[in-house]
Fold these 3 entries.
Entry 1:
Amino acid sequence: MDINSLLSPQDSPAPGTPPAAALRSPSLQQSPAHRSLRQHPPSRTPSNVGQPTSAYHTPTPPTLQPSVAASLNSRPLHGATSTPPVESHARIASPHDAHQTPPHHLLRQTSLRMETLADLASSMQHQQATSRQGTNTPQATQTQPSSRPSLGSLPSIPRSISGASGVDTIMTDARTFTALALDETSRAAAVEYDQKLVDTSRRDYSSHVGLVTVLHNGFQKLLQDAPSPATGGPVHDARLLDLQSVLRDAYENMAKYYALGEQLWQRRLEDAQATARTLEDHVHVLELYTKATEEEPRSSKIWASYATYCRYLVDVDPSSWREDDRDAAPELFTHGLLAGTLQDGARRVEDDLAEGNLVWDQYLDLLTDDLERAFDAGKLQDVTQAFLARLSKPHATWNETFGRYSSFVSRYNSERYEDIMQTATSHYAKIKEQYEHRRDHEFNLLQAAHGGDVNVEYAAMTEYIEWEKKTLGQFSLATVNGLYERAHLRFPEYAVLWEDHIHFLHKHSNRSIPEPFEDLVQRAVQHCPWSGYLWALRLTTAEKNGKDYEAIEDIKHSATKTGVLGYTDPEGLVQLEMAWCGYLLRRASNATEDQEDKENNFEMAIRSALELVQKSAPKWNDPQYRLARLYIKFHTVRHSPNHDEARSIWKQLTPHHCNETDFWHRYYTFEMVLGNTSHGLQPKEATLVLENALQYLETLDRPEQLIDIYTNHCNHHESVEKLQSATIEQRQAELLVARRRQREAVAQYAAATREHEMRLQEATMRDAPESEHQPQQELMEIDDPSTQTLKRTHDAATYGGAGEIDDTMSEAHSTKSAGREKRDREHALVVVSGLPEDIQLVQIRKFFSEAGTVKDIHFRDVDGRKFALVEFDEPDAADFAIARAESKNRIGDHELSIKPGQGTMLFVSNYPPVTTEQDIRKLFGRFGTILEVRFPSLKLNVTRRFCYIQFASQEEAAAAREMDGQKIGEGDDTGALIAKISDPNARKQRQGATEEGRELFIRHINFAMTAANLREEFGKFGPIEAVKLPIRGDGKNKGFGYVTYKDKKHADMAVTKMHGTKVWGLDLIVEISKPPATKHRGTFVNESGVGGEELAPAPVRERSLYVLDVPDTVNLAQIEQLAKPFKYKRINLLPKKQGAIIELHDVKDMAAARLTIDDFEIMPGRKLRLGSGAELKRSTEEYRPSYNPALSKKHNQPGKQPPQVSNFQPNTTFRKTKFAAMPGRKPDWGSQAEKAAEAGQEPSKTNADFRTMLFGKKD
């Protein structure tokens, strides 16, 4: 018999490998963690995954009946033709099992089981000529499948472990399933899936999974209905054999494109085991198990099932085999096969915290049983080391393992039992604690898995991974690696997890990693073959590791031959081709011989790559034109450079990228590099490129930058004649761009105004019933707080919480300020340090005048150093200021440091409501220099609870992100702190049950009802997600509540059925909840009481404190904390009036409260004062000076800002041009005079008043 019929080429044992004999082998005398490894290349081409494999259901796979813990010599024997039992082992196939562990791919170790297969193949060679039909054994006659090839025919029918022979043999026509034993629904589904596979050239992953699932379910159902072995056995059922043949083809066709993953492998193994009767059948199942453990080497479920199946074969009664197999079977299915399987499996799953015990328990049982059967001092040492190796790894059943170790020591070393156990307890205490620290995360994973929501489960897994990386210790690298592997098994098609895993190991490459880096990348492309990024990593990794050209070429062809890469996204194909062509270019450039052949090789490859990308995506153009740029480089660095060919490529790219400044800058740089400017020659080609670019000023993305490049180029490299011409062209170009920017600004301002008016109209219509008489009501509440009526609020809205974050991510993000454009402070800010102590605002403004319009300047003195926060009117101006700092960074004798503000500002939220600026500085001060802390104004929304922390550098802000996720403070009003780098573009729309229409607002509820009663009444319309029933101080509800359904249709049904229905004697009012309107004031009622009120309380006015000069950044919680010692009844915060009203229970507390509150410093430099209700009524909102003092007063009024023109203006005041006197708009003389002053020009004497406003009076 040919060994290739049993083993794939990579699994063939090395020549001279001795066969495995007894259990007492060298491999069993070592701990699984200390055995040597043997590398194997991948066995087939991996492929793409279209949908998560977690989406399909996995039935329980077959497991075997004999007890794992039983002694090999004491287990009952069974017949070779009996069906392997499938119900005795714990469930290992459910995608939502208690602990799901993904695979860890380690390199193959020399195994007893494969060596035994090789020996058997040799010993069975004489049986190949013997016909199976000549066997006189009744069992052989009954169990031989008619459609199964005989063992002797295997050499003529090549079959690898995977069963895949190559993509070129894939069927292209749809199959018919009419003859299969499937019900009509399953048959129709199978036809639909197969037709879709034909339409997509067998590339659609979900259709592969769907087809396999339909056929698998039909096969398992037919197995249940088939006759039992006693009455003929299922192997004689022609329907079963036909369906099994089609199912086997479906598995093999899918395997040609895609890695099956743990769940599909369990199905395939279950189907193969179901009809395994002959020696050939069982060998085929072992081949499949070998292949499964190679693809998913860290799957505890597959390894446990593999060991159980081997144990089943070892327990077969030798006399039950067919006569021609009776001698070979016992030699093949030996105790060594089982031992080698468990030994390999235990080593590979040792870092599986959740399910590694499935294999390790069997492994330890095997060792202890063998020691019990034949005691030996060497075996005793081996078993002891195995127990200690297991105890040194944290796992879910660590206590049970420790208990087994205690029993083991008590039996074999009882005289030293106490010393040994005491030492073990102290030595492994930290190991035990490691799992305890992770128990909550494991429980969250289990809970998410049982919930059935893949997104929730993925979120729990990624949160677990981030926690592990954040708490990474010196010896926990393997634990983090193991967790990543669990994630890969559960979500094998999530390329981002593979990328993160690779980056993690690369980051810690200086430490001992659990597996070879190249092997991880190889498995990544097997499971995510559509990812060009992963394929590019595999190519570069192979090149870095010194692989030869043929090996790297095979990798490249493996990526492209299936057609999966680039099938839906050409970006992945470009990434692969860039890696391949980049390798060929380096190979040609570094060649010492045959350089011309290698250059020709590259040129063929790059042309082929460009054609392939164009063919894959005819309408797609690479925005970075990476392959073309690589081709251009080749023409400039080759042995015989061809600059004309390189220029022709640039010209071919021009129509596609003519509106991109970056393209023209690259083109210009190319010509400058080629031009010989070092000898005084004028770079005419480079000048021509810039002149061509100026023809696209109306459509260029950044025309100002290109004009600046053109001007500088002519100044440095061209003749005086060309310079004069360029100066004139520059002015014309600047005029053109200025007019373009003016049109854009006016259009943008008009669009923003229309959008704001629409939003304002929508908000007015939505809130009209509640806010129609709001102004009069506000004055009434100031006169008498007791007349206030409680408005609808959510439970968390008392102080404002995380629920408000999405709507208030930034003060600048809010689009509710009338007529105000969105402010992008983060990207338009620069941080300036190294300033002189006597620096003035005008000096800073003048220094940055060339960059653009300065919107705001703030000086900050920190630890004897002076900083300036300079904000421009647009991000481009800030970028220009930073770029210019390389050449102009001095004011007087002081050298300035100018850094970008982007990434230096931290957005912080979800802190305790009473947190002050001092608390924030104390909490975050250890991370770096804090320049300022900004709290939002509460005038627009009193429920805001966030702030911005401005650090001096990006590194300090990034370090402060360490606080993200930590809980600060105590109580239910605080959760995990949110600390993220501020980004205006990250603002999200509010999401939740209210916005989705799934939340009901219910009024007129009987005060005696509880949340459980409410759930019972509304639960009959659909699954309920949450019930909120606010409770008063006396324990009764407030008469209203909220019910949130999981589906909007159930909420709509409940409104239809329950609105107006009498429940507990009252007619309910049920409606869909509406998003709460913005709260301009906040009220807090102390419902807990004070233990006993006055029989006749004094009038409200006599018990009320009117607090004035309250900063509009002070929230309700801070006022409540101030009033808490005085038994208050109600607090009303009025940010628009810069005040608050505190109503006390008892007039006797007024004196003490006045002494405490009056002149109290609520924040640095801001003191409260007490006044009358009339004073509070006359108060107005807090004045905030304009962030651009140079603008006129009318332009600083909210809602009246004119559109901002680009900061890139021509060097003229335009006083006599038509542009300066556009119809319908007065010339902005103040703005032009400011620019003239900043440019160093002398403004007209008639503008003295304006100069005084801008620069201040002269001394």
Entry 2:
Amino acid sequence: MKFVPLLAVICLSFCLIPECQSKSVESQFDAYFANSRYARAANGKEKKGKKFDPKELDKPLLDENSIEEEYAERMLVFLDGKKTKPKNMNLKQKKKSMEADLMDRHPRGPANEPRVPTKRKKRVFVSEENVKWPNRIIPYTISSSTYANTNGINSVWSTAVNRFNEAGCVKWVPRTSETHFIEVVGNSARCASFVGYLRRSAQTLWLYENGCVYVDTALHEMLHAAGTMHEQSRIQDRENIISFNWAPVSSGSELNYEGYPLFNAREYDLSSVLQYGLTYGSTTYMYVNDPDLAYLTRITQNDLSFYDKAELNAFYRCADDCTNPPVCQNGGFVKQVDGVCSCECVDGLTGTDCTQLDTSSGCGGTIDLTSPGASDTIIMNGYQTGLTCTWLIKGPVKTKIRVNVDSLGLPTSSQGNCYHYIEIRDYLSGSKGKLICGNSGGASFTKKNLGPTNMMIVRFNSAQYNTISPGSGFSLTVTAEPSACSSSPCKYPATCTDGATINDYTCVCTAGYSGTNCDRVDASATVSDSFEDDFTTLMTHGTSGVDFQWSTNKYHRFNTIDKTASDGDLMAALRNNFFSTPFYYYYVAKMETSVVFESANRCLRFDYVIANNDIGGTYTTRLTVRVYSDAAPSTNEFITNTGNEWTTAEIDLPAVNNMRVEFEGRFGYQGLAVDNIRITPLLCNGPDPCDGVVCQNGGVCEMSGQCNCQLGFSGEFCENDVCSGNTCVNGVCDRTSSTEYTCQCDSGWYGPNCDVDPCLNTNCNQGSCEALSETQTQCNCDPGWFGSNCDVDPCLNMNCNQGSCEALSETQTQCNCDPGWFGPVCDVDPCAGVNCNNGACMAQSETQTQCSCNDGWSGDFCDLQLVSYTCDFETPTESNCFLVESSSDQFDFTRNTGGTPTGKTGPSSAFTGSYYKFAEATNRSPGDIASLESNIPFNAGTYCLSLNIHMSGRHIGSLRILTKEGSASAVTQQQYTNAQSNAWFSFSKELSLTSSTKIIIEAIRGGNRNRQHKGDIAVDNIKLTSSSCPPASGSGGTGQPGKGNGKK
């Protein structure tokens, strides 16, 4: 999650012309990607001890919305020395995300449009306070008239508000009389919100009824309204985690990926509510640099992620209200909710300061590796099921935790899913980790250089599938590896390799850069920046005398024309923002070099565009390039429009000490973008010793005019290739010097020339040969075959009768019995000799059976016929009705069709069929009773009584359902008093009846005067069945929507 930055709250938006302003949106894909991960229903933390059905994992294809699918995507299964994924993963698009496709919009508010300053404004950073809601309160109201299903939006919104309010000190509250508030509307086809506090009477948040009414979508938009932007827009660190496929990104969706300098308290969070999914349809838009972490962009998140909550509390400074805030350790943070300050801990840790472990008894623990290079082991051999174990591994500073899997024996399903697994959090401790299982050790996991590298959480779970027998267990070695690279010493960008101690490291520099930290440029080097890696190479953001910052974009609008970059996919552009803060003309953004240049003559070249929509006035867009050094700075200004086309500029850079180049953009009426900045040796128009020198095969012409050849090439122009005419038969030539090479053999081939096939004379029968070395092979047998040459079938002489044989090893088999058969060889039929009379026998185990009765029969052996009575009043006399009018009451029920004679009371029609009975209140006195009572003897037993009731009107009395045993007093089973609903509602209850039991249904006239007659009580569809009530019926009345009375 990403909040508005101190220095960049106003640098985001798109263009100035009216056509663009009317359509300026954050994204047409936002709804799709915001929802593509959330179709499964769950909350943030995994539920300890939750049990799953192991049969689900044997399905050939998992339900894409199931929790099993979520876990499968996290799994790395190591079988027979190979890393695999479950075969039944289902990565197709989620139905819910498709419904929300193309509906997200984030319009620019009035504050975002550039303003003419009334006086010269001092250039300072815009405070992020401008986008925050005052007093951390966000009032809201729901426009019920824009939703057909108000229950749906109310339920989803209530859940989202509860989730948000539980996360910290920012509260969404129903509006009372507040002037500024959020209005949730559902009749516009978009999921959308303004970004931040707009200071307007009704700030709209759109949740379209047909596609946006989901908890996660609501949270996504609520975070925008609170002042956030997308995770993938974090320009300062996104390139370490994700990369982009810019080719399919259109001008309408580009703003989803635009890079902004954002305020962040925590590390990049792939599981954030505001991180988009990686794909749209069959097209991939983003990649996770570690593909094994891609699951974090898809997993269930019907809550804010752990780091969303941390960012929210930091941005709104929730802990500032804490008198004595706790000191949260091990990645936890202080959360303040309703004045209560506490530590929010990562899953697996607990306690007031996050130092205690949430772990099963007898396993888990804290492992303190007190010195660099120290290691310890975690061994779980002969484990039990039902365990959730947690280990907290900690090392000293400048170390990275590494986990080596020495041995692994954790069971898997037939589709390769983990029944029992180890969770390794090598990304962020507060995110869900990778799950590993299988039968092969050898894997290694190192904490990523993201957040604290000297801490890792490892968990083990044998509880979710506790009916599955344990495997052999596992053994892990955990090490605090020395890591000087954990402080990211290499620059522009470079690859850092750790050395033997915490201070040893090596930087492998990008071409053009040199020095210990790759922060120097030699006189003969060429360096450039086309912003493909945002501002992490040659150019970085300036911080002195700026109002906002440059953003990186694929498209930028110049007048009415969308332009793409002059080189590569991205450019640096000036844009006003989406955030709810004032933005003024002549705001300034800067970018500058920070590398150390060796003193030498150079040439600066760059491409730029200034739009041609000159409209006069003072505020003309300006690009100023300044060159600073020990001498006086030089200034070059560009203000003339380029006709909306890219133009290349050249500036000589004479040899000076401490050179620094600065690009200042001053926001005006015209659009401005810069791209393809390059600094090359020699002055721009000076003689070039490399003119006419064409170095081949990747060679580079140096200042001397000589070719510097790549490894393996030689000659004046690097034209000689040592691999030319190589003898690598089944492999590739690997150049080791300008005169020597070695052959890198394809899999299965050996020898100096890769022409030796060790499997040539090996017969593996029912299997395949695998070469282990030039002289060693092994046979990998097909399922069911064993032996060194895969010629042993353990099932050959095994008779499994009513089942099939499965080979477990060369000497062990088991019979898998057909349904209904049991025993070691599937010859036991537990139903033999069982008479189920009016039903069928079903074997539950080798010794247990159960009779499944035909309709109308019950009992252990289906020998009891069900008795059923129905009073639906469709005919004046009903042969199967068990109720008659009582002779001991003041008046009778009336059989009726349509509405009752009195307005504003009674139903408008029967619940079922055409007729029903009702107790008419007109011409009756308060307290008068109309009764129906049973007139037949019942066989002793349990019965289910059910009926539908209508009680609507100002003068409704009571309806009582009673039972009476012989001459004993009647017992009330249920009573309803006063109006219950404008619709029919249902009642059901189990009754224990005997031959002397009477069932009585009484309607008591309400009101306190005779003329108060809006009190008609109706009953219909009365049923009595000699069986238990279905579970869904409950044990009491429930008000359920039915047919209303339709009277006004």
Entry 3:
Amino acid sequence: MASSSPRMYRTTSYADRLDDEGLDHLLDESDDEQFKWEGRGYGFDGELGKAEKEREEQRRILAKAVKSGDVDKLRKLLKSVGPDDVVDLINEHDGKNYSALHYAAASNNVTTVKLLLKYGADVNSVGAACRQPLHLAAAASPPKESKKGDSPRKTSVVKLLLSKNANINSQDFLGRTPLHIAILHNNSTAEGVLLANDDIDINKFDHHRATPLVLACYYGRSDVAAVLIKLDAELSGIRGFDENMDTPLHIALRERHLKIAKCIVEKGIVNGNITSLLTESNRNCVEPIHEVVKGGHRDILKHVFKECSDVSDILNRWDRNADTPLHIATYCGQYEITKMMVKKGADLDSMNKDRRTPLHLACAGNFQTIAVLFVENGADLKASDDDGLAPLQVAANSKSLDTIVALLERLRNLDLQTAGGRNDCLGPKLLEWVAAENKADALQILLQHGTKLHGVKENDVLGYILDAASKGHTETVVALINWNREVLKKRDDRGRTPLHLAAEAGREATTNELLKARPHVDETDVNGFTALHCAAENGWVRTAEVLIRSKYDINKQTTDNQRTPLHLACGSGHFQMAKLLIFKEGADILLLDGDGENCLIQAIKGAHENVGRLLLSHEKWRDLMAITCLHPNSTDETTTPMRVLIEHMPDIAIYVMDRCISWQNKTRLEFDFELLDDTFSPWRLRPKTAEKDANDLHISTANGLEDHHVIRVASVSLEPNGLTNDGAHVSTDDNTPIDDEGVVPEGAHKDDDFPYEENGRLKKYAMPYTTKASEIRDAHPLNIMVSLKRGELLAHPLVTSLLHHKWTSNGRFFILLSLSFYLIFLLMLTGYVVVVPPSFYARSANTTTGVTWFADGEERWVEDGLTPEVIIFGLLGDWVVLVLSIINLLREFLQLKSYGLSYFNFGNLLEWVLYTLTVLFVLPLSDIQYITGIHIRMDWQWQCGAVAVFLAWINLILFVRRFAALGIYVIMLIDILRTFLKFVLILALFIVAFSMAFYMLLMNQEPFHRIQYSFAKTFVMMLGEVDFGDIFHDQNYLNTENTLAGGEEDFFLTNLFYEGITYTIFALFFVIMSILIMNMMVGLAVDDIHAIQQKAELHRLVMQAELVMTVQQALPMRIWRSAVICRKVIDMDEELTGLSKYYRAYRGYSQHVKKAIARAEETANMVDMSQEDDSNNRFFSDMTHRLKVMESKAAEECEKRNIELAEIRADQRLLRDRFNGVEKKLDSFLNALTDIMEGRAADAD
């Protein structure tokens, strides 16, 4: 039941005794407290007089006589006391604050009471706890006289006290009247006497707002309750007694005092207010009608229904959980009561706060007769509760299988009797939901009673297995297989069978059950995926193991792109799956997919480093790397795995390079360079005109072995006639022709496709994959390392060994030769500038009069004549410079043609300007010769020469930058210059600000006379050339600057007209420009230098690689191909002699070899990943599997929690009822304890 059942009432406990000691103790003669009278202290203090002792003795005799009922002794005592003292003696209270009449009434001794009243006892004397004698009489046992045959009422102390005008409605400290106390002590005699009195108030409340009728209902006093009801005791409107604010009818029903409850109901019927009585709610919104149906009091309900014509207001009442009486009766399984209420028109579709109808509750409790009753009377079978569940779904959740079958049978019969068949869809929907929610028990029952599922189609049932397999509902899958094995052939819109879906979702148990049914294991979907493909793609290792045990082909390729399970596992980054397929099951790692990519390419594209390392630990790792593939970021650019690793996985690239170094027998060190220098490797050479099916192509692997796997076709770009784009002629040594398509004709590689000799040297017939020098350089692995600043790769022994080989093969000779030619050019240009006079030295120059000179021109340029310096640099130098400049311009032009737009950079543009200006400078354009053979240069030529010689030396700096030893300082300078250029705008703004101020204040002085002069002077002042004395104190200290005595010109040119503001501006200038700005620029420079020094090793490696690649790019292919080798072997037993030993030491070669050996040994000692099966790997594998399973089941668990919540609510209701019972007893105890404490407090007062 969704809503909670009504709470048990927590009533206040009414003690059967009036105080904590009880009446028996009150009448105990051994209690000395009763002899301690008020105002007398405790006992006798000192010597009392004779009268006082006599008085005390009288009190003692009085108490004992009253307590024991000794009438004779009492009468004798009362007669012996004087008339004036007897009243005082009788009405005097003892230590318990009781008088003699209290004790007499408590003992219920009529004779004693009469005698005391005769002598003047106070009938309304108030004793302890505000109790009067009548209260004690109401609680007393039946009188002794009743045992002698006298009528109890005639001999009742209560009646006797009332006859003496005792207050019948008096209340004690708890607000209880004598009638309350009589009912509490089951004193029927007292009850009869009290109720017969006309003055009694039968509706009097005590302090707990309990009337006598409430107490009678609580304690089951049906006789007195009947009298009270007959006397028209209040039946409704009573709000009290406990915190639930129950009415008498609530209490009678709760305590199951049905006789009283019937009396109240009959009285309500007679009075015409039965509806209000049954619908009066307590604090918990529980009404008596709810208690009637909960307790199963069918007779009461039947009587109400019989006597009341309209009971709709009663039947549709809600409690605090919005439960109607029909809800409660259904939850309790009260069939007869539910039948009566349905017959009287109870709302069958009323919903409680959980939106559950009575039909929901009947289905949840498996009350099939009640559920059928509701359906027959039109209950809504499609109503949904808060969980979205219809009644039949609730029945399935609660495993109310009998109810499901009974309802479906009844529905089928009802639909057959009607033309509409409005319940046709319930069967299919229920079956679909049961299958989707893995309610296997319910599904089995439904499938067994298939004839009762009106509207269910077999094809729909077959489809349920797809969802069950995907969700891992193994029990449902088994039930469907047992029902019809055709479910194994069902496919979804992707053509996937249940086995595909179970494997895709990693449902190991479900997959195992499906395989037990022996389906066709080679079934594929529309893309050619088997179940193993699905498991591998999603990384379900355990599921894959189950499938592999069923003899799945682990190398089966898909139809759409020829991918194997290993391709999918690697592409998705599933390490454990890849490890299983490769090392345990022996999957072929060299198979290529439809795009010509192997499993390593898939792992690289997915950026799965761990999978890549796993693959490269395989013995065939070298073949994995020997392939061309599409670049991950391009659709047409080809690349190799090594290049992609350098770009995206440098750590894996280091691992590959480690494996390229082998240390054999501790004497032979071998480097494998082919992966780093693969220009001529066969996997890079893809003929453009090859149009054969890729599956028919055969290529050679790096080991020279034939490989027939699928490869992709890429193009080779060659220009016609065998000319490369940079003009270099590409042909074989035996003049093998190259066709117009740039394809090497068949047979050009002779009989062996492998381009390297046995010693690792390049064969003469080997061809590069492209002849574009710029493409080779840009795509070269070394250049990629440089562009990405991969210092850790550049520092690898394999890379340094390759760079060393290229440098020693031809790089050093070319670079030294280039440097030599450039130094000759620079020397000749500089010498020419030194020995040739500038044009401004000539006063006049013409062909007739010759040249006349300024200053020492004649002496300097003419008188010495043709000295050796003049002959070398003046007569020959200009022609040497001109020839070298033209050669360099041609070289730059060829590079521009070869490189295209990539040619344009600062260095190349600088060389264009340098050589162009040099040619213009040295050309003999003037006809005037100041010495035979040496012409005067025109003004513009001399200016061109000044710029050219400046750029020539700057270019030398850029040339020197290529050498690691000096290049680091050039890099520092360039970085500092870049930083300065970022700051120059701010600096310029400060210079403009101060320049304008100085121009306005010091315009009369020469350095600031023009605006451009002011800018220049301000900039120079910033560098330290202030000339403070010349500006401010050019005249003497006698202050003659204000007179014209020294002459007007001196006065104007040196005077400081605005001294105050000028000094202020100068002070700001010194602080800002000379201190702040200059120090800030120094700090920026220091930071740049520090940053470069921290990466000095990286810069050194980058410069080395750039130098080698620059040399290779600049050389014709015929030359640089001689430096290409696939491997290099160093025999450590070989003895070095002569200069070789010292050269290697100088180059750090021995250190380089040591690093290479250390790398090789480290790689050799690494544990083969294929053999790793330690506890950690197993632990992480298990954890990974568990996490994936948990993730996949998270949604299902959430749904299950909703169902469990409903069950928890039902359990909570049971616990709440039990707790209420315990709480009731606890409240009774606490209230009794409170009464005791309050009574003692009142006595103390």
